[in-house]
Design goal:
Layout lengths: L2 H11 L1 H17 L10 H31 L4 H31 L9 H6 L1 H12 L3 H56 L5 H17 L6 E2 H19 L4 E8 L4 E2 L3 H11 L10 E9 L2 E8 L13 H14 L3 E8 L2 E9 L7
Parallel strand pairs: 2-4
Antiparallel strand pairs: 1-3, 4-5, 5-7, 6-7
Length: 360
């Protein structure tokens, strides 16, 4: 865990204690600036130190909790400047008045002269050169530390919100994708039931196994490729029950090691090829599926003998639209998805460069 993260977490959990620790450290540091030879009496040193630290703390919280938040909020810069100058002036006047009317009577031997309040308020050079520089010396450090902490918290919250947004979008995409798949599969079983096919029961059993995977094993962001391969095989067996010998499916796969991929995307591409290939081909459709994983480079190719009608953009179908969105959210620029038609062959190509976290 990074140091700044540790500090922020400690500050969030122990706000009062963290402020006490900061000002205790500041007290020790600023104590060295006093002339211990001039003020030999411990009580004199104590009085001066309490005075200095009191106004340093006041100016620090003034800058950190009033000026900087107003500046970040984008309020009128002129009004912020006026407010800062007025507040700084009041603090400096109060600091000088405290010295004249409280501190000096405690540490100086009378008789000695005292400035009037008007003289204090109108002695701008002394207020700025001495008291402003002295009183606000710690304010900038304190304000900078608070600003860094606040920006870190905002950044972490943004990351959490972005992660939640991505997860929410993925859940929406899956909610759209699963009914799309189920609708077509149930239509297949419905077609079998109309003709009282003896394989209807086997089809239902196959669908039950697929549903078990979809409903209970795909709740995570990633699933093993081996499980997706098993899911595709089950789906192919289910479709073969419908088409019998009329359908030829060639599924080849080779992986050098198991890895994690986004669930249901591969099945959706396969399901899409059946719907727009075998489902619209009255002859003997052939579907070729190739899957490989070598050195973290994942490759998936689905092709069939169906050519889209002129003017019909098959890439705009809901399945491919959702697939692209899901891949964008999880892989960014680490994937390529292409849909091509060549020599009356409809081909979908998916390539993903998996990182170390996704390769087991």
């Amino acid at each position: 865990m990074a140091l700044i993260e540790r500090i922020v977490k400690f500050n969030s959990a122990h706000r009062v204690l963290s402020h006490l620790l900061f000002w205790t450290a500041a007290t020790i540091i600023f104590l060295n600036r006093y002339d211990l030879v001039e003020y030999k009496e411990p009580e004199h040193i104590f009085y001066r130190h309490v005075y200095y630290m009191s106004f340093m703390i006041l100016s620090s919280y003034f800058v950190a909790y009033l000026i900087i938040p107003a500046f970040i909020a984008g309020r009128s810069y002129l009004s912020i400047l006026i407010f800062f100058l007025a507040g700084s002036y009041i603090i400096c006047v109060a600091s000088r008045a405290t010295v004249v009317y409280l501190l000096e009577p405690l540490i100086r031997v009378p008789p000695f002269g005292q400035e009037s309040l008007w003289d204090i308020m109108t002695d701008f050079p002394k207020l700025f050169v001495h008291y402003f520089a002295q009183t606000f010396s710690a304010a900038w450090v304190f304000a900078l530390m608070k600003l860094i902490k606040d920006q870190y918290i905002v950044q972490q919250r943004s990351l959490v919100l972005e992660k939640e947004k991505v997860q929410s979008e993925l859940n929406v995409l899956k909610a759209q994708l699963n009914p799309h798949f189920l609708f077509n599969t149930l239509n297949n079983i419905y077609s079998l039931s109309l003709i009282n096919s003896p394989v209807t029961s086997k089809s239902i059993a196959g669908l039950s196994e697929i549903l078990d995977h979809v409903l209970y094993k795909c709740n995570k962001k990633y699933v093993p490729i081996s499980e997706e391969i098993r899911l595709i095989n089950n789906y192919i067996d289910l479709e073969k029950l419908r088409y019998n010998d009329r359908l030829q499916v060639n599924f080849k796969y080779s992986i050098d090691e198991d890895a994690m991929v986004v669930p249901l995307v591969l099945l959706s591409l396969v399901e899409n090829s059946f719907k727009h290939g075998a489902g619209e081909n009255i002859g003997h459709p052939v579907i070729d599926i190739d899957l490989s994983l070598q050195g973290g480079n994942f490759y998936f190719r689905v092709s069939n003998g169906f050519l889209p009608e002129p003017g019909e953009n098959k890439t705009d179908r809901i399945g491919l639209i959702n697939i692209r969105k899901q891949l964008d959210l999880l892989y960014g620029d680490r994937y390529q998805l292409q849909v091509n038609t060549d020599d009356n062959i409809y081909v979908v190509l998916l390539g993903i460069h998996l990182n170390g976290n996704e390769v087991q």
